[in-house]
């Protein structure tokens, strides 16, 4: 019975929400660290990102499903070691700034994989985002913001790897 009530509550709340789809382009800095057998190595590079999203937006919150790809610069050391693809969720709290603008802060959880030279390694991201959503036209909004994410890779051949990503993004959203 509890599951039925919960399902009905989710259905009713989704019917009261606006459907939002959109995408963002990002740019940032990535600090990487790898440890194996007590020896650590670090690297620093830039990345660009493309993120597509869809979900629901209420008056003071939004819940989104994300699909994204981070492309690392070639200076990481090996050709071909640069693509990270992920799928996840984002939940944001919206604060109205004025009639056309909402300020937001939210959390991001993703699961993905990165192509390395010899294999693909899975990872999990946890991060925070903050920014502004500016209504430009009926149903179209501009989104600008910044994010900080920690990416922890699955242990691969005894190597522990972790990336810290800090970046900015800009995008368009469409309310359906």
Structural summary, described in words:
The protein is mainly beta and 176 residues long. The protein has a single domain, classed as Beta Barrel (Porin). 8% of the residues lie in helices and 73% in strands. It is built from 1 helix and 8 strands. It has an 8-stranded antiparallel barrel. The protein is elongated and about 55 Å long. 26% of the residues are buried. The mean pLDDT is 87.
Low-confidence stretches: none
Give the structural class: mainly beta
Shape: elongated
Average pLDDT number: 87
- The number of helical runs is 1
Query: If you consult CATH, what is the topology?
Result: Porin
Q: What is the CATH class designation?
A: Mainly Beta
CATH architectural group: Beta Barrel
What key phrases describe this protein's structure?
single chain, 176 residues, mainly beta, Porin, 8-stranded antiparallel beta barrel, 8 strands, 73% strand, elongated
């Amino acid at each position: 019975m509890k599951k039925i009530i919960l399902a009905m509550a989710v259905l009713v709340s989704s019917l009261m929400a606006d459907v939002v789809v959109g995408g963002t382009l990002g740019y940032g800095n990535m600090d990487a660290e790898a440890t194996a057998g007590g020896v650590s190595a670090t690297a620093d590079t830039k990345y660009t990102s493309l993120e597509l999203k869809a979900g629901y937006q209420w008056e003071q919150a939004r819940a989104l499903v994300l699909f994204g790809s981070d492309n690392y610069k070639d200076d990481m050391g090996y050709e071909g070691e640069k693509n990270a693809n992920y799928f996840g969720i984002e939940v944001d709290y919206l604060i109205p700034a004025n009639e056309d603008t909402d300020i937001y802060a939210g959390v991001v959880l993703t699961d993905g994989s990165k192509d390395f030279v010899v294999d693909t390694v899975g990872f999990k991201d946890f991060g925070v985002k903050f920014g502004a959503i500016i209504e430009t036209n009926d149903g179209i909004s501009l989104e600008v913001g910044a994010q900080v994410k920690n990416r922890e890779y699955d242990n691969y051949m005894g190597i522990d790897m972790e990336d810290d990503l800090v970046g900015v993004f800009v995008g368009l959203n469409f309310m359906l």
